[in-house]
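Hi R.,

Here's the chain you asked about this morning:
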Amino acid sequence: MNMRVHTTFLAIMAMALTTAFSPRSSASTDESVLVMEAHSGKILYAVNSTQRRPVASLAKMATAAVTIDWATAAGVDIGGTMITVPETITLVGGPNPMNLQPGERLTLRDALFAAMLGSDNLAAIAIADHVGRELLRARGRQGEPVVTFVAEMNSLARALGMSRTRFNNPHGLDRPRNPGAMSTAADMARLSVYIMRKPPLTFITRQTTRRIHVHGSDGPRGFLVRNTNELAGGDGVLGIKTGTTRAAGPCLAACVERDPLIRTMPDGTRGVTPRRLVIVVFNHTDRFDRARGLIRRGWASYDRWLQLGGLVENPRRELIQVPDLE
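And here is the predicted structure, written out as tokens:
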């Protein structure tokens, strides 16, 4: 095969892959799915990925991202910072596995474990109340702390290019005529890539369990938080988050890493290619089994793409570029 024919063959095969795995792919299903490689931004598979819908507790990924960004900028130690459970938890509802009560205290890090592993809505409110108050204090302003925090969640979404996303609270719980968050699989994939760049969050979300402590009027009590993500603890799995409400259905965002690909370049130097998949699934009755299948499919598609030279014909359709905001 001469060079011209070979180049044409590669281009045709790359276009075929793009058609098969572009965000315009569709299926006769009510699920929304997106699979991408995080470092290159290559979209590997998509179904209804730009359809806007409720995302339940996947909203807590934005809560965690805003919190870590604030702590980093302010030089705050999340393990040594105590936060207080506010009175507003009585208005939240939903599961309260730790039996959190107004006035009780826990570290910001333990609250993040509770929110991200156990999907605790009340822990998310406590985080938002504390960080929101600190933001208002630093700006010399008055206001409602949780509202201030949610505004930061939406500001982050805009900065990441999540143009079809709107957060209404820090936990994602839906209200009558007011969903906790509306987004798309493509937008939540952007957020997933962003938070998995942050070592504190990769450490938190990959744990299967974590013992945390709450300090109340009767003294400290321990609680074992279990990760709701069944994929956690698996080979290469870095997290990230589950979510379920009646409106959203079962949802999952997951991140899986392979060892870097090391190749010898024509000039004799070595090239290192990091490899990390992000998978987002909305409204699938068996989200974990679906994700496992998508992991296999995603890696197979990514390997084929690299073998064909990693060609990109249409960046707007084939890639999701997530800015580094640090």
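One quick note: The chain has nine helices and twelve strands.

Cheers,
M.
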